[in-house]
Amino acid sequence: GQSLEQPSEVTAVEGAIVQINCTYQTSGFYGLSWYQQHDGGAPTFLSYNALDGLEETGRFSSFLSRSDSYGYLLLQELQMKDSASYFCAVMDSNYQLIWGAGTKLIIKP
Amino acid sequence: GAGVSQTPSNKVTEKGKYVELRCDPISGHTALYWYRQSLGQGPEFLIYFQGTGAADDSGLPNDRFFAVRPEGSVSTLKIQRTERGDSAVYLCASSREGQPGEQFFGPGTRLTVL
User: Fold this and answer.
1) Which of A8, A51, A97 should be substituted to probe chain B, the one whose Cβ sees the most B Cβ atoms within 10 Å?
2) Does B102 contact A48 at a Cβ distance shorter than 8 Å?
């Protein structure tokens, strides 16, 4: 079967750093995407990793280890507006995005 | 257009009725995807178009669901004989040629079947 595991909820303090992990088991793998979704909003693309390593885009970074079937999203200098759900999604061999259930990030002042 | 648009934003219907949901992708995006999302869950893949043809419709739950993209741009998701379990937010996304991992989503249509 196909599955993605990510924590259901993470709490952090404004200004801090938080890491959201994702492990996956899928039939075929082309890459790992991360999306942000605010309550009532649509998913917004954050990053896509096809190769091992760390990709940095401003305050957000994403890491992939294909041998470990593992990735993470790193958010630095947390702001209150970063409170949202974060989804990892694997691009499988059919070019379908298989989504995790999402991690709700709660940021406290 | 500037982004993916979907109409209507909300649709309330009665069990057994037929509904159509429309998606207008970003101009020039060749791939178009339909998902549905229930509260507290990630989006669930329904169907993917590359141009006018359905490249993968394996996510459609049953034959009451059908989607078309006749001119390779606007797409319509059609649901026949709606059931209460069809209630969800239906999301449409589009992506550039060769970049399926970077999808741009519309605001969704919230479908409620009474």
Assistant:
1) A97
2) yes
